[in-house]
Amino acid sequence: MTGITVYPTDGAGAVDVAPVDPDAVIDYIIDWTKWLDGDDIATSSWAIDNATEASSANTLKTDGIHFLLFDKNTGEFKTSFSTSNRNITLDRKNPLSFYSQKYSGVIVSEELPDRITSAPTKIEKEELAEAGEEMSKLKIELAVPFWHDDRILGLVLLEAKASKNAYASEDFKLIEKIRSHASANLYAAIIYARAVAR
Hints:
By secondary structure, the protein is an alpha+beta fold. Helices cover 37% and strands 20% of the residues. It has one domain: Beta-Lactamase (2-Layer Sandwich), CATH 3.30.450.40. The longest helix is centred in the last third of the chain and has 29 residues.
């Protein structure tokens, strides 16, 4: 496996090596062209080496993470990468698949009773309850949809934390940070793969 160093950019694509405010939002750019040589990206994994993120990343260790990509032709979410030996496919009628395509927010199994109670409509209450039942069957604690503009790209399903502690606010901050960057990069990879395929 080849490692690729990723450099922060100034937002216009130029590498920015100057010290950055720790609260700044940093854009990153990855040029895969010379590495791919005509191949497609089948899977990828990301590591966070930043010391300020290390404590959050260490508390986010889970029993399993499943990254499912959305296939717009079939309407299914299919496992692209998993840290366990489970291969998960959610068809378009699956309640978790349906809810994730309709609403962009993270679904936290522990918060579902309160979300169901406060849902604005009877239909949304039922949809949330059914999505929660599916999460329970799959032993999933968090469902994190990845969107770009108004298009769903994928879904990350996280099992229980290895520590068996509940997910905390620092976990959600890290997940949201990863989600926003990964969504943009995933969309770029999809567009690139399509361009290469033509």
